[in-house]
Amino acid sequence: MSKKILVTGGVGYIGSHTVVELQQSGYQVLIVDNLSNSTEKIVDQIEKITGTRPGFTKLDLGDRTETLAYFKKHSDISGVIHFAAYKAVGESTTVPLKYYHNNLFSLINLLEAMDEIQCNSLVFSSSCTVYGQPEELPVSESAPVQKALSPYGNTKQISEEIIYDHSQTSALEAISLRYFNPIGAHESALIGELPLGVPNNLVPFITQTAMGKREMLKIWGDDYNTIDGTAIRDYIHVVDLAKAHVVALERMHGDKKHQRYEVFNLGTGEGSTVLDVILTFQSVNGVKINYQVAERRPGDVEKVWADTRKANEVLGWKTELGLDVMLKSAWEWEKKLNEGILGDLDKFRGNIR
Ligand code: UFG
C-alpha cells in the first residue's frame, strides 16, 4: 500500500504542483483547502496530468472541531505538507490580525490534529523572508532570522518557532522549507499561478501585461546597489520546488539520520535582477512588455539569493530548470488561461484592478 499524504492548500499554486509530484512518486494524496484563494477546478487539472484524482475536501483548518474530525476520519495519513495560509505581503500590513489569526490558528489546529492520530511528519512552507536583508550573500540557513518586514513574514517566523517547540516535546518530526521566489508553471500548462485580482508578484504581472490585461509593468526602483540598479531575487521553478517537498518527506520517512527539526533553503543559488527577468521573458517568448521605472516598493529588500549547499548535500536535491524555462512555462500558462482553460475566472483574473 502506498503512503497517504495530506496536502493542505493543495489546490493553490505550489500545493497543486506538489500534489502532482507526490502522485507521480507513487503517493496517495489527499487535499484540504478552504478555497479562499483558489478553485476546486484545479483538482480536475491535477487528474488530467497524473491520471489519478486526489481526494479533495473543502476544509478550513481554522475550524478546530472540523479539523479534528477530518483527521479522525483519515487516521492513516502518514505525513502532512502544509501550504494553507494567506500570503499577500501588502495586505498583511493593512489587516495583520487576519494573517495572524488564519496562519497561526490553522497551524496549531493542524499540529493538534496530527498528534491525535499520531501522524508525526510535517513539511512546512516557509520563506526566505525570515532573513530580511541578509548581511552576507548567498544567505545560508545559519544566517540570523531578522525582524520580519511584514505581518505575513512574521507568521512564517512564528510558525517555524511553533513547529520547532512542538517537535522538541512531542513525536513530531518536521522540515521547514524556506522558499526563495517560485515562478513558472507545470510543463503541461494545465496548472499554474492564479493570482487574485492585481498580482503582487513580478512574473504574473509580467505575463498579464504581455497579454494586454495590464497596461504597464512598473519596476519598483532602479537605484539599488546592483548591476543594473533593479532588485535581485533568486527565482526558482515551481516544479523544482515541488520536487523538494517529496524529497523532504522521504527524508523523514526513510532511515537517513536526521534531526527532529530541520530547515532548508530552496533556491537556485543564482540571483537575477528585475530587468534580467523582463528581458529574458521578452527574448524567450518573443513578446514585448510595456514597462517603466517607478519608486521603490516599501518593505522590499535590495538583494537576496540562496546558499543551496545544505539542500544539495544534506537533502540531496538541486534545481534543474533555468530562468528561460521558468519564463516560457509562465507564458504558456498565461496563454492557456486566456483561452479559457479554467472557464469563467472572473473571481481570479477579473476586473479587480
Ligand atoms: N517587482 C516589480 N514590479 C512588480 C512586482 C514586483 O518591480 O510589479 C519587483 C519587486 O520590487 C522585487 C521583485 O520584483 O524586487 C520580486 O517581487 P515579488 O513581489 O515577485 O517577490 P518578493 O521577493 O517581493 O516576495 C516574495 C514572495 C513573498 C515572500 C518574499 C520573501 O512573494 O511571499 O518573496 O522575500 F515573503
Biggest β-sheet strands, sense, barrel:
7 strands, parallel
N→C terminal distance: 48 Å
Label the CATH architecture of the largest domain.
3-Layer(aba) Sandwich
Structural class: alpha/beta
Count of domain modules: 2
Which stretches are poorly predicted, pLDDT < 50 over at least 5 residues? none
Shape designation: globular
The H-and-E topology, N to C, reads as EHEHEHEHHEHEEHEEEHEEHEHHH
CATH topology (fold) name of the largest domain: Rossmann fold
Report on the architecture of this protein.
The chain is of the alpha/beta class and 353 residues long. The chain contains 12 helices and 13 strands. The chain has a 7-stranded parallel β-sheet with strand order 3-2-1-4-5-6-11, with helices on both faces. Strands 7-10 form a two-stranded parallel ribbon. Helix 6 links the parallel strand 5 and strand 6. The longest helix has 21 residues, at 96-116. It is globular. The mean pLDDT is 95. Uridine-5'-diphosphate-4-deoxy-4-fluoro-alpha-D-galactose (UFG) binds next to helix 7 and strand 8. Residues 87, 89, 127-129, 153, 181, 200-202, 205, 217-220, 231, 233, 274, 297, 300 line the site of uridine-5'-diphosphate-4-deoxy-4-fluoro-alpha-D-galactose.
